[in-house]
Design goal:
With 152 residues, the protein is an alpha+beta fold. The protein is 40% helix and 12% strand. It is built from six helices and three strands. A hairpin with a 2-residue loop joins strand 1 and strand 2.
Length: 152
């Protein structure tokens, strides 16, 4: 019983055209792997930043990060905390895909390294304030010796 809109003919055979010209993929050995240097890595990183302006989240994530080449197949991306490492993993294929295509190095990998910056603590206590002033001006120590009964 035919259903409206569905053809009633059946396919009984499938034709395979043997005249198709199959081209082999480029051999991996024929691609020349670029020797990666720190300058070239930084140049490629800036290209990636420029190319990512259409994706604001990705651009903001990588724009101010520093990359350090460790060897020809590994580089470090310096991040201030582990949370940004997790965000970088979301874009791992995009980052590595761009860099691998540019260098023809399919074994290129990255590692996010948390770099903790020195945080200066504001001196609140009188002793801390005096120590900070004495560090800037060592003459404060000799002044304190002249007037031992003055409390800092």
């Amino acid at each position: 019983m035919p259903i409206a809109g569905i053809p009633t003919q059946r396919l009984t055979s499938i034709s395979i055209n043997t005249n198709i010209d199959i081209k082999p993929l480029a051999s991996l050995e024929s691609r020349e792997v670029e020797q990666l240097t720190q300058e070239r890595l930084e140049e490629l990183w800036q290209q990636l930043v420029e190319n990512s302006k259409d994706d604001e989240k990705f651009h903001d994530l990588i724009a101010d990060k520093k990359v350090v080449l460790k060897n020809n197949n590994l580089f470090h991306i310096q991040v201030p905390n582990l949370l940004l490492d997790n965000y970088l993993r979301e874009y791992q294929t995009r980052i590595l895909g761009f860099l691998r295509d540019a260098t023809s190095n399919d074994s290129l990998q990255y590692k996010a390294v948390v770099v903790v910056e020195n945080v200066t603590v504001k001196a609140y206590l009188p002793r801390d304030k005096f120590d900070e002033m004495a560090q800037r001006n060592p003459a404060m120590l000799s002044l304190r010796k002249l007037f031992p009964d003055i409390d800092f």
